[in-house]
Every structure is written in structure tokens, then in C-alpha cells.
């Protein structure tokens, strides 16, 4: 929505207050930063009210935040027409590989499809939108394993420890710890979901305090 409607969002904002509400922190996405730049170009004053973000809320897993590396995003492939492994965008794979070499955990942000149009409706300029879709931990784990099977660079494997989180901060939040292979079969319930791949350092995947904290959530 932000990419397609930035001008609409800013229209009239130099004359009256316009609020833009987002999930997480307003500066947690580059598209939101771009919106601020566009506002400044129009001499529109911007005030940000910061909010909790999954980037720091993952501390609920007991993992030490300073041991996280680059954050990556996983997307639904079928909507982009990437049906074959050769055509799939996998820049995130190298980032996970780099993180794990440094013993750092990787937070994977999972795709959200809201107010998306089909290619046909987009081409015909019809304001008909597809039902919302939210990537699950199970789907993400499957994408990760399919990509490793294709690349075979040992960035991770079926037995790599990972953590699935859902609805963090809500009363119904859920945390599940297991290998990627096991998380493929885990049902985390309603959205929003995220996945964390554990870093490995000197053969150890977790600090003893992290491991002690996570024992409660193993599947």
C-alpha cells in the first residue's frame, strides 16, 4: 500500500494532520523511511511515535539481542511467478550463511500479502483484491529447506535449530523451538509469524542461558 499510495497518504498533509499507523516501529521498513523523505520534499513536518517491533520483541525467546545478525525477509514465491528454483530471489540465503559463520542468529520476517491484486485485475485496473495471506512458520521452514537442497552450500540444514514465534506480545503468543525439519510440521496458529535461525559458534548453537530459557518451548 505504501509503495503505491504514498502520494495519496501525503495529500493535504501540509494543511491538516495525517496519521499513518503501522505494525511495529515506523522506521522498521525502508518504505516508511521513503515516505518520510517524500514528506520532507513537500515541506511536510513529520513526527514519529515509536512502537514495539518484532526486531526487539524477539527477546521474548530468551535469545541475546546483541547476538542477532542481518535481518532477512522471506516471500511467497508463487505470486512472483518464481516457480523454479533457478528464478527464485535468494539473497537472504547468503545473509543467513554469513550470520551463522559469525555465530549470529537470523531473524526471518515472513511475507504478508494484504490488499494485493491479481495480475489480471491489475492489468484491467480493477480494484478487486485478493484475500489476505500471511506466511506461516511451517511454510518458511519448507522454503528454507528447499533452497538449501538446491544450493547445497551448507548454510544450514534439516537439523539446524530454529525458533518459530507467533503473535508476539499477545496473550495467545506462541513459541516453538525445534529443527527446521520439525518446524515444517508445527502449527503456530493465526498470524503474525516470524522465524529465527540459530547461529552456531565453535560447534555450539546456543549460550547456556539461552538454552536453559528455551527448554520450555522445545517441540
TrEMBL record:
Kindly provide the name given to this protein in its UniProt entry. Answer: diphthine methyl ester synthase
Q: Which UniProt keywords apply?
A: Methyltransferase, S-adenosyl-L-methionine, Transferase
Matches recorded under InterPro entries: 4pyrrol_Mease, 4pyrrol_Methylase_sf, 4pyrrole_Mease_sub1, 4pyrrole_Mease_sub2, Dphthn_synthase
Tagged with keyword S-adenosyl-L-methionine: yes
What EC number(s) are associated with this protein in UniProt?
Answer: 2.1.1.314
Q: Name one Pfam family in it.
A: TP_methylase
What reaction(s) does this enzyme catalyze? 2-[(3S)-amino-3-carboxypropyl]-L-histidyl-[translation elongation factor 2] + 4 S-adenosyl-L-methionine = diphthine methyl ester-[translation elongation factor 2] + 4 S-adenosyl-L-homocysteine + 3 H(+)
Q: In which pathway does it act?
A: Protein modification; peptidyl-diphthamide biosynthesis
Amino acid at each position: 500500500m505504501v509503495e503505491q499510495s504514498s502520494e495519496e497518504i501525503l495529500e493535504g498533509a501540509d494543511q491538516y494532520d495525517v496519521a499513518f499507523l503501522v505494525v511495529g516501529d515506523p522506521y522498521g521498513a525502508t518504505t516508511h523511511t521513503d515516505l518520510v523523505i517524500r514528506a520532507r520534499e513537500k515541506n511536510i513536518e513529520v513526527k514519529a511515535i515509536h512502537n514495539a517491533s518484532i526486531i526487539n520483541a524477539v527477546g521474548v525467546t530468551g535469545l541475546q539481542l546483541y547476538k542477532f545478525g542481518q535481518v532477512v525477509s522471506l516471500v511467497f514465491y508463487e505470486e512472483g511467478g518464481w516457480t523454479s528454483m533457478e528464478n527464485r530471489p535468494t539473497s537472504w540465503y547468503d545473509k543467513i550463511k554469513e550470520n551463522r559463520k559469525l555465530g549470529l542468529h537470523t531473524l526471518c520476517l515472513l511475507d504478508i500479502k494484504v490488499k494485493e491484486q491479481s495480475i489480471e485485475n491489475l492489468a484491467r485496473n480493477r480494484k478487486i483484491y485478493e484475500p489476505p495471506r500471511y506466511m506461516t512458520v511451517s511454510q518458511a521452514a519448507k522454503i528454507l529447506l528447499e533452497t538449501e537442497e538446491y544450493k547445497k552450500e551448507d548454510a544450514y540444514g534439516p537439523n539446524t535449530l530454529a525458533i518459530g514465534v507467533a503473535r508476539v506480545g499477545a496473550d495467545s503468543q506462541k513459541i516453538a523451538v525445534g529443527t527446521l525439519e520439525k518446524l515444517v510440521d508445527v502449527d503456530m496458529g493465526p498470524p503474525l509469524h516470524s522465524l529465527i535461525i540459530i547461529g552456531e559458534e565453535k560447534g555450539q548453537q546456543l549460550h547456556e542461558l539461552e538454552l536453559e530459557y528455551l527448554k520450555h518451548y522445545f517441540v
